């Protein structure tokens, strides 16, 4: 079929579908470009370390959407195929789009592996795994594996005449091609998905374990566990979110990939990349504003005590620094009321820290914490209900009490 005949056929039978494909691809490109711009700003303008793998993800999204738009334009006959474009559309385009999608998935695996190593071997992570050389090796491995699993698309089509292309049924109908097609589909979608699930489950279990240790261990300073990767909790949550969104979106798509037909692939690719791009933008950039507050009266041997330091934190699990929401001191009547807000993707875990010298003959202040229940978490910046600790006798020994020299 030559280009003119193919265009007439496509426009007559699926013109509206191609318009939707183009609109979705353009929207995906816009979202991906915003995501990439924000990551570049955070990484280079604000000089935050890290974000290398997320930058690669964003670049892959933009490139994929760009190629999808090109395919839409060609299929809508806005560009007439010549011999060069026909060769590119027949042999290169389908391979590039699928290889980029595969690379995106393998980068998600790399992100999950990154969080797993950071949690389980922080010293190795800091000294070796987080270095640029290691990141480049990871990117190279993802690229090579993506090329290998998508090699089948290089020989799926063949040029037909001077400016047309058709499926190369001489090759695609053979046993060896279908064996390769099956193995590559399993590797690209199901093996990578299973690895993501295993790593994500390990991350969740480790986060709970580290969070428990963090809340009960005796330590001299609030920041003693804050030497690991900055913003770990947010990144770990993104990895977990991307894992489940990848499974939800890509395992059904894997069947469409395996039973590929030119009439359906563009819409599936557009929807898939739109969902992935929007999910990445939403997860990495936007959070829900949440607030919490606490109040009470502090006593020392039955006497109201003034100027006792109290702080409200969002207790981050894992290796990230607890976010300070508010701080204050008791008044002359021993009363305090503090509140604060922050943005988080998941629910915040507010806790109240109290630092005092009641019954204290040792260096550094005594410190203990109160977790604040979920019913006292409010939407927005204004606290609807303060957690009331009542009258607290500071001379008593509290569970998980520690000493804090730096507060």
Automatic annotation (TrEMBL):
Alphabetic keyword roster: Membrane, Secreted, Signal, Transmembrane, Transmembrane helix
Pfam families: TTR-52
InterPro entries linked: GPCR_Rhodpsn_7TM, Transthyretin-like, Transthyretin-like_sf
Biological source species: Bursaphelenchus okinawaensis
Location of the protein in the cell: Membrane; Secreted
UniProt family annotation: Belongs to the nematode transthyretin-like family.
Every G-protein coupled receptors family 1 profile domain range: 32-287
GO cellular component annotations of the record: cell surface; extracellular region; membrane
Stated name of the protein: G-protein coupled receptors family 1 profile domain-containing protein
Source organism superkingdom: Eukaryota
PANTHER family, per the entry: TRANSTHYRETIN-LIKE FAMILY PROTEIN-RELATED, TRANSTHYRETIN-LIKE PROTEIN 5
TM segment ranges: 22-44, 51-70, 90-113, 134-155, 186-205, 235-254, 266-286
Signal peptide: none
């Amino acid at each position: 079929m030559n280009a003119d005949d193919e265009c007439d056929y496509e426009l007559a039978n699926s013109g509206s579908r191609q318009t939707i494909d183009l609109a979705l691809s353009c929207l995906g490109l816009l979202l991906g470009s915003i995501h990439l711009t924000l990551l570049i700003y955070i990484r280079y303008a604000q000089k935050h370390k890290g974000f290398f793998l997320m930058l690669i993800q964003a670049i892959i999204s933009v490139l994929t959407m760009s190629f999808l738009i090109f395919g839409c334009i060609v299929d809508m006959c806005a560009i007439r195929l010549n011999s060069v474009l026909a060769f590119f559309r027949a042999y290169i385009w389908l391979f590039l789009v699928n290889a980029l999608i595969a690379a995106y998935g393998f980068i998600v695996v790399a992100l999950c592996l990154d969080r797993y190593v950071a949690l389980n071997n922080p010293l190795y992570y800091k000294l070796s795994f987080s270095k640029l050389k290691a990141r480049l090796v990871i990117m190279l491995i993802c690229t090579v594996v993506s090329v290998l699993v998508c090699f089948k698309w290089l020989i799926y089509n063949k040029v037909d005449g001077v400016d047309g292309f058709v499926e190369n049924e001489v090759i695609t109908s053979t046993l060896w091609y279908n064996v390769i097609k099956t193995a590559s589909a399993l590797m690209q979608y199901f093996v990578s998905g299973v690895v993501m699930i295993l790593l994500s489950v390990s991350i969740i279990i480790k986060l709970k374990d580290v969070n428990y240790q963090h809340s009960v261990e005796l330590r001299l300073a609030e920041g003693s566990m804050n030497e690991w990767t900055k913003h770990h909790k947010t990144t770990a949550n993104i990895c977990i979110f991307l894992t489940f969104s990848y499974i939800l979106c890509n395992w059904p798509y894997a069947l469409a990939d395996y039973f590929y037909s030119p009439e359906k692939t563009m819409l599936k690719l557009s929807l898939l990349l739109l969902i992935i791009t929007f999910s990445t933008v939403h997860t990495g950039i936007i959070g829900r504003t949440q607030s919490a507050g606490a109040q009470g009266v502090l006593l020392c041997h039955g006497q109201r005590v003034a100027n006792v330091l109290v702080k409200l934190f969002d207790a981050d699990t894992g290796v990230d620094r607890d976010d300070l929401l508010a701080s204050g001191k008791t008044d002359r009547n021993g009363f305090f009321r503090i509140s604060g807000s922050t943005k988080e993707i998941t629910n915040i875990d507010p806790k109240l820290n109290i630092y005092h010298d009641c019954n204290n003959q040792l260096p550094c202040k005594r410190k203990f914490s109160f977790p604040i229940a979920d019913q006292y978490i409010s939407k927005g910046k204004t606290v609807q209900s303060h957690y009331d600790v009542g009258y607290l006798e500071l001379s008593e020994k509290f569970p998980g009490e520690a000493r804090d020299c730096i507060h």
